[in-house]
Design goal:
By secondary structure, the chain is α/β, with parallel strands linked by helices. The protein has 8 helices and 5 strands, in the order βαβαβααβαβααα. The protein has helices at residues 11-24, 41-54, 64-78, 85-106, 116-121, 142-152, 161-165, 185-196; strands at residues 3-6, 29-33, 57-60, 109-112, 134-135. Strands 3-2-1-4-5 form a 5-stranded parallel β-sheet, with helices on both faces. Helix 1 (11-24) links the parallel strand 1 and strand 2. The protein starts with a strand and ends with a helix.
């Protein structure tokens, strides 16, 4: 009857939040905004735009201090090894812990916001953004997420336009874009469709 999810300002969490609000009622959906040192200002603005449009209950918990504690404790072990996916995943796992804490404390189901394209190629963090008791868009390819967002906005702008048009990014390192690691989704999704569905 109640749900919580992390709202990043991206299209996946925005679509998930709208679907949750329509399914459960806006009063039963809580979102967490968890900006890091790599989050862009427009991501927080886009997330707040959706929060204000829907009237969602929200909390803002910056994660930089928590991330820094992890890095301080790990620095004797990591030594001079360069920044890589390890540090990226720690950020996602900090967010997973915060989401799960709200879920446990208030009895809200945590909604996973990962789409089928990301899931199929392993573009997600175990025990991080892949946390959740229900994967709302887990059977929806990324290109279909864009179609859903446009459909949701067909009568009025509910999902901020910037969430739809900006290049998708996990924002776990400076200037990161999904296309740094993956083909563009309009190329990837037809390939995944052939592998998975056919």
């Amino acid at each position: 009857t109640k749900a919580v999810l992390g709202l990043s300002g991206g299209i996946d969490s925005a679509v998930t939040a709208v679907l949750a609000a329509r399914a459960l009622g806006v009063e039963n959906v809580r979102v967490l905004l968890m900006p890091s040192q790599f989050s862009t200002g427009h991501s927080v603005d886009d997330a707040m735009g959706l929060v204000n449009k829907l009237g969602l209950m929200y909390d803002i918990i910056p994660i930089k201090d928590m991330y820094d504690v992890f890095m301080e404790k790990l620095s004797p072990i990591f030594g001079d090894l360069p920044f890589n996916v390890t540090e990226e995943n720690i950020q996602a796992r900090v967010r997973g812990i915060l989401n799960m804490a709200i879920s446990n404390k208030y009895g809200n189901i945590l909604l996973n916001t990962t789409n089928k394209s990301e899931m199929a190629v392993g573009y997600g963090t175990l025990y991080g953004d892949l946390c959740g008791g229900l994967s709302v868009i887990g059977d929806v390819y990324k290109t279909e997420v864009y179609e859903l967002a446009k459909y949701i906005n067909k009568d009025e702008e509910i999902i901020p336009l910037n969430s739809i048009v900006k290049p998708p990014s996990a924002e776990l390192r400076p200037g990161q874009k999904d296309s740094d690691s993956l083909p563009e989704y309009d190329i990837l999704d037809p390939i995944l469709y052939q592998y998975i569905e056919k």
